[in-house]
């Protein structure tokens, strides 16, 4: 070991969680946290919710105040892209030309936006939403807009659409998939969320194929579909997902496959380099397959786990993934991963305002999606973590106390 | 600004000042108080900002909402009569001087 310590690339939730955990658990070496955005690390979830609605100002997004980094001796290097990584030489080059050496490196590079490649896609008035700068630009443009088209029916698109509707805008959601939340939710939940947006006056169009953006004088004026339909817009928000930011890892020769491949202790194919968060793909012991998760929960807990590995822990990462989305007054909470399920059991009233969908594969509980049913969600997390699958009859019976199984 | 004292389960305490309108959780989180995880950032989704409230201030708090009530049933440490989720408590001038005890664990 030299005195180079640990360098963490990325100061999103995973990177910060790694740095904090190292200090809280007594690591005394040098900790450097590099981020490509300026300023203090901030929380992303409120960008499409409280911040977009104007309920929060920027100061409330900040994760930890400046004194925190001083007190814990975490060297924050913001506004710097890492440009190349030398695995054998244990060094990292920054765009400033500076070269950092490390004993261990943690890649928490996160994900980057997928961008639309259609005519007019670079027109003024077309927005994306992942960073604070993008959220600020979008928020500033809102006051002058009356008609907004949202492209994409995932979490970001729907949360932003809800914020726009709440702000009195006329909103149309153009979704490429056959239903909303195609990657995230089961049929009953997707239908409920669609009903929610329709009920609030938003227009929802599924299975659309985009032809291009209409522009006037370099500004977007609408969106046209391949079937000839056209939707006027003062601004367009594109939320078509993200892809893992693996550039640094890939050029350095680390094994990647839609994500930086890591083992159960967050180690990449180079043993001194770890990865965590949205950028990492790993075999999940609860699901027996490779997964890459885009979630706060995973970013935070995997960041902690990576820190643990650096401190000598040997236990595998096996946290139950969970997700949430707040839209209007509705709380959607998802525990587990439903992919590949062959049975959906409804607990509660699917037509009502409160229910959960228990998703099973071969009688094993994979995931539970809850609409306004936080207790179901919390119990589900514990059931899945413990490998306990309630029978379909018990799951469907609101008088059966699921907690009794724990 | 509202003055708050957070006391961790091992007795370490933090004196903090935070603006009115922020939540009790945010005050702790910004200042790096250890006993608050707040994984969901204050959306009442994770029950990892569980606290025990100074009895003298209990009646100055907003009532427990239905979501908070359900989440409090699922906290890692035991729920007590003075248990709250700190993300659901907005700081007001009335809360100046409040003492908040943190549970041993949030996860």
From TrEMBL, chain A:
Record's signal peptide: none
Domain Reductase C-terminal: 322-406
Domain FAD/NAD(P)-binding residue range list: 6-303
Pfam families: Pyr_redox_2, Reductase_C
Keywords, ordered alphabetically: FAD, Flavoprotein, Oxidoreductase
Cofactor(s) required for function per UniProt: FAD
Gene3D superfamilies: 3.30.390.30, FAD/NAD(P)-binding domain
Origin: domain of life: Bacteria
UniProt cross-references to InterPro entries, sorted A to Z: FAD-oxidoreductase/Apoptosis (IPR050446), FAD/NAD-bd_sf (IPR036188), FAD/NAD-binding_dom (IPR023753), FAD/NAD-linked_Rdtase_dimer_sf (IPR016156), Reductase_C (IPR028202)
PANTHER family (UniProt xref): APOPTOSIS-INDUCING FACTOR 1, RIESKE DOMAIN-CONTAINING PROTEIN-RELATED
Protein's name in the database: Oxidoreductase
From TrEMBL, chain B:
Residue ranges of every copy of the 2Fe-2S ferredoxin-type domain listed in the record: 2-106
Family membership noted in the UniProt record: Belongs to the adrenodoxin/putidaredoxin family.
Organism: Marinobacterium zhoushanense
UniProt-recorded name of the protein: Ferredoxin
Named cofactor requirement(s): [2Fe-2S] cluster
Gene: fdx
Keywords from the named record: 2Fe-2S, Iron, Iron-sulfur, Metal-binding
Segments forming a coiled coil: none
Domain of life: Bacteria
PANTHER family membership: FERREDOXIN-2, MITOCHONDRIAL, FERREDOXIN/ADRENODOXIN
Classification via InterPro entries: 2Fe-2S_ferredoxin-like_sf, 2Fe-2S_ferredoxin-type, Adrenodoxin-like, Beta-grasp_dom_sf
Listed Pfam families: Fer2
